[in-house]
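Hey, resending since the last one bounced:
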Amino acid sequence: MDGTSLTIPKDALASLEGHWIIENKGVVPDILVDAPPDEAVTQNDWELDVAVKKALEAIRKSPPLRFKAPAPLPAYPPAGSEPGASFDGPSSDCVSSAGKEKWSCKN
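The structure tokens again:
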């Protein structure tokens, strides 16, 4: 077999006014592109080329806003006071001072 498959549509869309939409007419494109008959042979996608060209023109006419990055966040907890990388508690490299809630870890 050549791997061809067939799908059967099983859904339909209706507008809020109760009319069937898309059925029997497809979606009307925003920009009509007449592809040359040799498109399949040349493997050029004329519709994609026109879409990219139009998108780049729109970006040139109205460039996206550029935002200034915020200042870096401070280290939290302060560097050197955090326990080992474990969710169950400090790693075996860390020891607790008796009666205190402070851990000291070997690096």
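Residues 29-61 form one domain.

Sorry for the duplicate.
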